[in-house]
């Protein structure tokens, strides 16, 4: 059964304009069809389509699940975008499938990319959310300067920065996860890693330096490894 994004009002679900067009014109759906609808906030409804127009498709909710597959933690990954967008998009797709709540893109000293297209990123994440039948849509934040980001207020978060500087103290991520944090923020650097100044500055703002293992990963691999580790460690 296909999943669509829309609004859920008591016993009625309304697909948004883009999803309505896709259902009516691309899939050539009909009244009486059964679909799933999510608002991206944890609600998942089984819906019987009752009305189809040019811009709006509506349906009657047959079954509603709230907090569908809600995790017991909140994961925010802040990552320096890779030069090749395909690599970043691969990470975003897989991280969404595994489970991630928020994504921020960082502009760092060694950053290879100075801009991103948020609308394209959102479409990739929406597609991955639908493909994996999830009811929570990850939040996407635009490119932010590293120094501004680490100064932001992340109340209640365990804040970590992954880096490869062996002479700066690092804690294995698995050790951090042993304390079962409810909210965790992970910083993942570019191919050239974070600069020493960035690492030190982050630690001055209460970020813990972490290691993802003995291997040296590419940016998207490191980020995916971290998402997997959190998923396994905090289930």
From TrEMBL:
It catalyses: uridine(1498) in 16S rRNA + S-adenosyl-L-methionine = N(3)-methyluridine(1498) in 16S rRNA + S-adenosyl-L-homocysteine + H(+). GO terms for biological process: rRNA base methylation. It comes from the Bacteria. It is found in: Cytoplasm. The keyword Transcription regulation does not apply. Residues 15-61 form the Ribosomal RNA small subunit methyltransferase E PUA-like domain. Keywords: Cytoplasm, Methyltransferase, rRNA processing, S-adenosyl-L-methionine, Transferase. Residues 71-228 form the Ribosomal RNA small subunit methyltransferase E methyltransferase domain. GO terms for cellular component: cytoplasm. Its EC number is 2.1.1.193. It holds the Pfam family Methyltrans_RNA. The keyword Cytoplasm applies. InterPro entries: Alpha/beta_knot_MTases, PUA-like_sf, RsmE, RsmE_MTase_dom, RsmE_PUA-like, tRNA_m1G_MTases_N. One of its GO terms (molecular function) is rRNA (uridine-N3-)-methyltransferase activity. Belongs to the RNA methyltransferase RsmE family. Specifically methylates the N3 position of the uracil ring of uridine 1498 (m3U1498) in 16S rRNA. Acts on the fully assembled 30S ribosomal subunit. This is Ribosomal RNA small subunit methyltransferase E. It comes from Empedobacter brevis NBRC 14943 = ATCC 43319. The lineage of its organism: Bacteria, Pseudomonadati, Bacteroidota, Flavobacteriia, Flavobacteriales.
């Amino acid at each position: 059964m296909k999943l669509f994004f829309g609004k859920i009002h008591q016993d009625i679900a309304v697909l948004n304009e883009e999803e309505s067009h896709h259902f009516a014109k691309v899939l050539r759906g009909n009244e009486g069809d059964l679909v799933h609808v999510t608002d991206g906030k944890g609600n998942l409804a089984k819906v019987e389509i009752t009305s189809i127009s040019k811009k709006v498709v509506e349906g009657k909710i047959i079954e509603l699940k709230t907090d569908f597959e809600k995790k017991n933690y909140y994961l925010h990954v802040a990552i320096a975008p890779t030069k090749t967008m395909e690599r970043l998009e691969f990470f975003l797709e897989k991280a969404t499938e595994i489970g991630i709540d928020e994504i921020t893109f960082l502009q760092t000293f060694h950053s290879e990319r100075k801009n991103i297209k948020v609308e394209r990123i959102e479409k990739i994440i929406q597609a991955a959310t639908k493909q994996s039948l999830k009811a929570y849509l990850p939040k996407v934040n635009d490119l932010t300067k590293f120094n501004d980001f680490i100064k932001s207020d992340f109340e209640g978060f365990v804040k970590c920065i992954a880096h490869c500087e062996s002479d700066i103290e690092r804690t294995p991520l698995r050790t951090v996860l042993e304390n079962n944090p409810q909210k965790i923020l992970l910083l993942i650097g570019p191919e050239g890693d974070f600069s020493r100044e960035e690492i030190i500055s982050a630690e001055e703002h209460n970020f813990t330096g972490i290691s993802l293992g003995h291997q040296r990963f590419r940016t998207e691999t490191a980020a995916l490894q971290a998402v997997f580790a959190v998923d396994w460690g905090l289930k």
